[in-house]
Amino acid sequence: MPMLAATAERLPRLNRFGWLMGLYGENHGRFQRLFAPARLGLGRHRSSVGDGLDLCLDVIEQHRYTTELRLTYAMPDPVTGEPDPSAWLRVYHDTRQLEATHCYIGRRWQDVIGLYPPPAEVIGHRMRMNTFLGKWLEYLGERGHGIATLRGPEIVSEEVIKTA
Predict the structure, then answer these.
(1) Dihedrals phi, psi of 11, to nearest 5 degrees
(2) Distance between CA atoms of residues 44 and 26, nearest Å
(3) Residue-wise pLDDT tens for the chain (164 aa)?
(4) Residue 139 lies in a domain
(5) 20 to 30 Å CA-CA from 126: which of 11, 90, 113, 115?
(6) Is residue 2 in a domain?
(7) Residue 7 falls within a domain, yes or no?
């Protein structure tokens, strides 16, 4: 039994922040395989696989080290008019990470964790958003969405992207 305790002490522990950075890395790999965002131009790209749920990938900004995107279905929430679900994404090209900065899944983050949440709650919320993103990307891949099914870009105004 003492050998087991010694082995456990030598294994590094992964804290919540480290786990979150790991999620960002995993999501980056999934997203790269599906959509190769560095090759996409600004505007709205649509992916249709014949299931009636067209996917919209809005490339909002591209910079040397980051790309800002929004991933959503072409389907508004009947109550709010917001695309639901939708995820605002930031790709960090140099560190190969993809972060879901905001998600809209029926409610905004302020409604979920409040305006002034403690840091631990912010990390927990980011973990949930990025876990959701990873599962969504897996689902999209299984359904057949990807770079081969993307059409566009349609040039749309920033106001349309914010509300559509």
Answers:
(1) -75, 130
(2) 24
(3) 555 555 556 665 667 788 888 899 999 999 999 998 888 889 999 999 988 889 999 999 999 999 999 999 888 777 777 777 789 999 999 999 999 988 765 455 445 555 666 666 767 778 888 999 999 999 999 999 999 999 988 766 555 455 44
(4) yes
(5) 11
(6) no
(7) no
Decide: helix, strand or coil at residue 63. Answer: coil
CA 23 centroid distance within chain = 10
Instruction: Please say whether the dihedral angle defined by the alpha carbons of residues 143, 146, 151 and 153, taken in this order, is positive or negative.
Output: positive
Token pair, residue 50, equals 């014949």
As a whole number of angstroms, the distance between CA 77 and CA 9 comes to 50
Domain count along the chain:
1
Residue 155 phi, psi dihedral angles, 5° rounding: -85, 120
User: What residue numbers bound the domain in which 136 lies?
Assistant: 15-163
H or E element at residue 103: strand 97-104
- Assess if residue 3 is contained within a domain: no
Give the sheet arrangement for strand 86-92, strand by strand.
Answer: 97-104, 86-92, 66-73, 55-62, 43-47, 150-154
Helix (H, G, I), strand (E, B) or coil at 75: coil
- CA distance linking residue 36 with residue 29, whole number of Å: 10
